[in-house]
Structures are given as structure tokens and as C-alpha cells.
Write a structure and sequence with these properties.
Blueprint lengths: L4 E2 L4 H7 L2 E3 L8 E2 L4 E6 L9 E8 L1 E3 L12 E3 L1 E3 L9 H6 L1 E6 L1 E6 L6 E6 L6 E10 L3 E10 L10 E3 L1 E2 L4 H6 L2 H6 L9 E8 L4
Parallel strand pairs: 2-5, 5-13, 8-13
Antiparallel strand pairs: 1-3, 1-10, 4-5, 4-9, 6-7, 9-12, 10-11, 11-16, 12-13, 12-15, 13-14
Length: 207
């Protein structure tokens, strides 16, 4: 699972890289956590217009739980969608109609013993920003929200976690956004190229 990533470039640079128009981007932090805003490139309404729109959404589809008295609790952000579960009810229609690109500079996984886990960061050498496969939808709780598609870990991630985000090569961006679901599903694979791994002493949970 991925519960933390960085996006360090200015919105204008990201829009230019993704050939996207700048929509409502609002404010977002350099480090993005579930339940907080991040940037995505999406087609308005899942349409087929040229390019996409760079916009801010909340990371995680809201899952509304109920307390013992039946009253709804604060929604829980479901920020990862397994590639082998995309035909499930929660993800099916977004996968078919509302795929998006998530601009990412680096993503982190927790590594180490319980209670002493640290942050290990993964990047692509020579790339300040890369695209992770995402899904999005409008929600009554948070407005537009997105989730990150996960697949089996590649060799560079496997020593830390058994899953990783689906990283899309540049030539596959349009196929993820606009291609038929069957073709998009073939892109959900472990990243085949070189990745850089940075192990740190930074605690996973910052008090």
C-alpha cells in the first residue's frame, strides 16, 4: 500500500509536462497523505477531449462507516485500489469511465520493526515527476476524490513491500486516460525499468 507520496513541482510545470490545462488546483502540500488534497490530471466527466485538466482532488474514496448507535462516523479514505480488484463494485465504474494520472515525484513505504518504522522513498532516475495510474469520482462527502491503483511490487520495491503503485511510461499516458478498459488493464503491471531507493532514518509517523 502507498500512504504517502511527494509532488514537488509547481503546478504550471506539471500542467506543461502533462499537456494539461490548469483547472481548480487550490492548495496542496508537498507531501500528500490520504484524506488530503493532491493533484491529478483527468478528463472532465470522463470525456474524450484532447489533453486533460490538472485539478485538485482529495486522495481517497470516502468509505462511510457507522457507530454503535447507527450514526455515520467520519469517512475513511480508501486511497489504494488493487489492480486485481478493479472489477469490484467500489472501483468498476471509475475504472471504466474515470481514469486519471497522478503526478508524483516520489512515493514512500514504511520499513522496519513495528513502532520504529522509517520512510523509504522510491523515485525514477532522471525524472522529477512521473505518472501513477489513478481513478476518480465525485463524492457527496468530499467532492472530487481519487485513488491510486496498486499492483505487484517490482524487484526494487519487493524488499520493502509486496505491492507498489502502477507507474505509467509516458507513451502509455493517453492509453490509460482514454483507452478501453481491457487495454488499460494491461498497463497495471510492476514497473519494468530502473528505480532509485532511498532509505532514511525519518520516522514513518511524525509526532
Amino acid at each position: 500500500m502507498c500512504n504517502l507520496y511527494r509532488m514537488t513541482k509547481a503546478t504550471a510545470e506539471v500542467a506543461n509536462l502533462f499537456n494539461a490545462t490548469a483547472g481548480s488546483v487550490g492548495n496542496f502540500a508537498t507531501e500528500v497523505y490520504p484524506g488530503y488534497p493532491g493533484l491529478v490530471v483527468a478528463k472532465a466527466g470522463g470525456g474524450k477531449q484532447e489533453g486533460g485538466e490538472l485539478r485538485s482532488m482529495v486522495w481517497g474514496f470516502p468509505l462511510v462507516l457507522k457507530g454503535k448507535n447507527g450514526q455515520p462516523l467520519k469517512p475513511k479514505p480508501i486511497n489504494n485500489a488493487r489492480a486485481d480488484k478493479l472489477d469490484g463494485f467500489m472501483w468498476r465504474y471509475s475504472f471504466q469511465e474515470r481514469r486519471c494520472l497522478i503526478p508524483v515525484s516520489a512515493f514512500a513505504e514504511a520499513e522496519g520493526e513495528k513502532g520504529a518504522k522509517t520512510r523509504t522513498w522510491f523515485t525514477l532516475p532522471g525524472e522529477d515527476v512521473f505518472a501513477v495510474a489513478g481513478l476518480w469520482r465525485d463524492t457527496p462527502e468530499w467532492g472530487p476524490a481519487y485513488t491510486m491503483v496498486m499492483t505487484e511490487a517490482c524487484q526494487h520495491v519487493a524488499g520493502v513491500h509486496d505491492r507498489m503503485p502502477v507507474i505509467l511510461r509516458h507513451e502509455d499516458w493517453n492509453d490509460w486516460l482514454d483507452g478501453p478498459p481491457d487495454a488499460a488493464g494491461l498497463l497495471c503491471r510492476p514497473y519494468p525499468d530502473v528505480m532509485a531507493v532511498e532509505r532514511t532514518a525519518d520516522p514513518w509517523v511524525r509526532r
